[in-house]
Design goal:
The protein contains 6 helices and 39 strands. By secondary structure, it is mainly beta. The longest helix is centred in the first third of the chain and has 16 residues. About 3% of the residues have low confidence.
């Protein structure tokens, strides 16, 4: 009997120890309380793996008695570990996941003026974040051209063979249809456009926001193809000091520093950068592929916080640039009987800004922004010089009202833009003034957790004039965008609107001949557009170690009343309107795969079919490939080591002489090693040495009177650079 009793006790203990339990887990978003489907729940130490259903629920069974560790994971959320002592009395255990702060979905967007997270913004906005900016600044500390060049759907178009001036294109459209902003201020358009991206350093940027497609409802003239907003970093209580020293094999030296800090009532940021480039001739034809350059940028900002509701920001950005390209003998030793061609660009840019923000309530905001921009540029080639000054002022006042499920914005702005040419004959004097008064309103409505709608309307009264004509126009610019979330993995955005562009003499084409023999504008009217984008976005995790994200975007833009460049019998150039439209349509495909958080694969493909109906014979827009492919494979161990391999394919392009170029590949490699507060980096850009002179000489004619082919790929060839960074 005693043995039977002991045996029963032993059996009871064993059964108790291995008793099986069932529990239901509910997984929700910590902030929105939305359910999270397809979240993974692992029971540590046991070969048990569960997923939440469409109701955010997962039934865990069989679970033994005792302490069990649950690991809950989902794409875009911080991993959570939970210790539970089984058996439990609760029928349902609710778990709240917090979104990852540095994930793409947590990015706060300022370009739409609503200060919403990107996942709740109906307008399609792409972001380039600090990590990628930091990586690209290793390649080009002097300017942001590399950041934009390697983005899907964006191309950097070089406009000068000797001085390397450039503009950017979105969706295949000319650079004048893209509006460049720095912290929401438009200081880089029209006369400044040919040198804009060459004078924006990346060292003080926190992110770059890109709106592709019409954005004139919020930003007025020039936002037909899209908007690129370079957003500066703001100071935090912990001081931040960054220093970079870079040297390349092509003779470029960059020395830069960025510092910022704040306390309770005051803060500051300071950017200082010096760039030096020696004249560089890679193909031995005596003409520079990279000009002799001396750049200086100083950008201090003062932040004042008088109370919890008010923020004042005062800034001043000064840039001085001196670029000389052409015959390398002229640059080094001066002119002689056999060498006389040169091209110089000397610029001074000063932008003063003042920004006041006042919180009326917890979520309501009044913002007043004003800026004054002075840009002076002189261009010289043998027997010709061009000298002009652009004055631009911008004042905007807006009111953001946040309701329970709506964000309302009301605002008005005044823009003054005036160009004055110096030392020019009256019949060629290119003076032009534009005055704009605008008012706008926008509503962002969260109809439900899954459907969000954004609609807006802008009215601009524009007056532009010179000595030859004067014209006023009223533009009514509606827009609408919608976001629908099918579930936590699958979402879609669609939007469209109208746009316009006021007349300008300063385009990619006129930049190539330094505005020589260009007549003033006369009876030229503003261009008008309509267009839209639509995309599908999907993200998921595959197993426990893979994350997959796919975005498919389609775009269409039509420009009417286009301005075209014509040449008369005497050889003079002038602009005129045409009733034949420009159309751009296509799509972008982006795939991102992450493995174990260390390996990241990016693939982007762009198809662009852009045509101008006014072009004879071949209507394809010039210097535009139909197909482009971007590939990047990156290995990164945070704050330790990073390396990457990149490849880019560019399809054939039509030149202005109707000939087609060759397609080409280019490849790059980068690596960075962190030693505490110091990091060392190396970079090999275009290491396969793709360059235009391998296909045909870019320079034609004699040294005394050369002509230059259209630029359609690299001119400088392979570039190696390396440097050191300090972060204190």
């Amino acid at each position: 009997m005693r043995r039977i009793t002991l045996s029963l006790c032993a059996i009871f203990c064993i059964v108790s120890a291995y008793a099986q339990n069932t529990v239901t887990i509910s997984v929700k978003d910590k902030i929105s309380k939305n359910i999270i489907s397809n979240a993974t729940i692992l029971v540590k130490g046991l070969q048990l793996n569960f997923k939440t259903d469409n109701s955010g629920l997962a039934v865990l069974t069989p679970i033994p008695n005792g302490n069990q560790t649950l690991i809950i994971r989902n794409v875009g959320y911080q991993e959570q570990t939970l210790l539970i002592n089984f058996p439990v009395t609760e029928k349902i255990i609710e778990i709240s996941l917090e979104e990852i702060s540095d994930d793409l979905e947590e990015v706060i967007i300022s370009s739409t003026r609503t200060s919403r997270t990107i996942q709740n913004t109906p307008t399609r906005v792409e972001t380039i974040e600090l990590e990628e900016i930091d990586e690209k600044s290793n390649m080009r500390p002097a300017n942001v051209s590399m950041i934009l060049h390697e983005s899907t759907g964006i191309s950097v178009q070089q406009t000068s063979a000797t001085s390397a001036n450039a503009s950017i294109r979105i969706q295949g459209l000319d650079g004048r249809y893209t509006q460049l902003l720095k912290d929401g201020y438009a200081s880089f358009g029209n006369f400044a456009s040919g040198l804009s991206i060459l004078e924006i350093p990346p060292l003080d940027l926190s992110q770059v926001e890109i709106i592709k497609g019409p954005a004139s409802t919020l930003y007025g003239a020039g936002a037909i193809a899209g908007v690129v907003n370079f957003v500066s970093r703001t100071p935090k209580e912990q001081a931040d000091l960054n220093f970079i020293l870079n040297q390349s094999n092509v003779g470029q030296t960059n020395i830069g520093a960025f510092a910022m800090k704040r306390n309770q009532n005051i803060g500051y940021s300071l950017l200082a950068l010096v760039n030096m480039q020696q004249p560089y001739d890679v193909d031995g034809d005596d003409f520079t592929e990279l000009p002799k350059t001396r750049d200086l940028t100083i950008h201090p900002k003062l932040f004042v916080y008088p109370n919890d509701k008010t923020t004042l920001i005062i800034g001043n950005s000064f840039t001085k640039s001196d670029r000389t390209g052409g015959d390398i003998y002229v640059i080094k030793d001066g002119e002689d009987a056999n060498h006389r061609y040169f091209e110089t660009n000397r610029t001074i840019r000063n932008t003063s800004t003042f920004d006041v923000s006042y919180k009326l309530a917890e979520k309501d905001l009044i913002k007043i922004k004003t800026s004054y921009n002075y840009f002076k540029r002189g261009i010289s080639i043998p027997e010709y010089s061009f000298d002009g000054v652009n004055h631009n002022s911008y004042t905007d006042i807006s009111y953001l009202k946040n309701l329970k499920n709506q964000s309302l914005i009301f605002g008005a702005n005044i823009v003054y833009d005036s160009f004055l040419e110096k030392n020019q004959q009256p019949e060629f004097k290119k003076d032009f003034t534009t005055k704009t008064a605008g008012a706008y309103a926008q509503q962002t409505w969260d109809i439900s957790n899954t459907f969000k709608l954004e609609s807006g309307l802008r009215a601009d009264l524009v007056h532009y004039y010179n000595d030859y004509y004067s014209k006023s126009e009223l533009f009514i610019l509606p827009k609408i965008s919608a976001l629908y979330k099918f579930n936590d993995k699958f979402s879609s955005r669609i939007g469209g609107g109208l746009g316009y562009k006021t007349p300008t003499l300063f385009t990619e084409q006129t930049e190539t001949f330094q505005y020589q023999n260009l007549l003033p504008l006369n009876e030229v009217e503003a261009e008008k557009s309509f267009g839209g984008t639509a995309d599908l976005n999907y993200k998921t995790n595959i197993g426990e170690e893979w994350i997959l994200s796919i975005n498919q975007m389609f775009f269409y833009t039509k420009i009417t009343n286009s301005t075209i460049l014509l040449q008369d019998g005497a050889g003079y150039f002038h602009f005129a309107n045409t009733n034949k439209p420009v159309k751009s349509l296509g799509f972008e495909s982006n795939i991102k795969i992450i493995f174990k958080e260390y390996f990241k694969l990016f693939a982007g493909y762009t198809f662009t079919n852009a045509k101008a109906a006014y072009l004879p014979v071949i209507q394809n827009i010039r210097l535009l490939p139909k197909n482009k492919l971007n590939l990047a494979l990156i290995y990164e161990k945070e704050r330790n080591f990073k390396m990457g391999l990149e490849g880019y394919f560019t399809d054939k392009q039509y030149l202005y002489n109707n000939l087609e170029t060759n397609p080409f590949w280019e490849f790059g490699f980068m690596a960075e090693k962190v030693f505490g507060k110091i990091s060392i980096f190396i970079n090999a850009e275009n290491f396969t040495d793709t360059r235009q002179s391998k296909f045909k000489s870019v320079v034609n004619g004699s040294h005394l009177n050369p002509t230059f082919d259209d630029i359609w790929t690299h001119t400088e060839g392979r570039t190696f650079n390396g440097g050191i960074k300090f972060k204190l």
